[in-house]
Amino acid sequence: MYVIRLPDGTLRVPHSAVTEDGNTIGQGYVEIAPGHPDYDRLVAQALTEEELEDRRRGWRAGDEALRRQFEEWKAAQTEE
Known about the structure:
- By secondary structure, the chain is of the alpha+beta class.
- The chain has one domain (about 5-80).
- The protein has two helices and four strands.
- The protein has helices at about 40-45, 50-80, and strands spanning about 5, 10-20, 25-30, 45-50.
């Protein structure tokens, strides 16, 4: 999960709910605004929603190339 910078400057920060023994109950985001004690530290690593979508497109393109490579390998195994 990534820190996401919204157009109004607010940050969506990943947050996990955990039990007392450390098991994760759920994951989500909390929003923090400028002036929050952690804002300056987190804004440096934040991505805009557009940047995050660009990364996702890149992952999908990479996944497609890997899938084709696997399908070629699988076809070659079947032929042998």
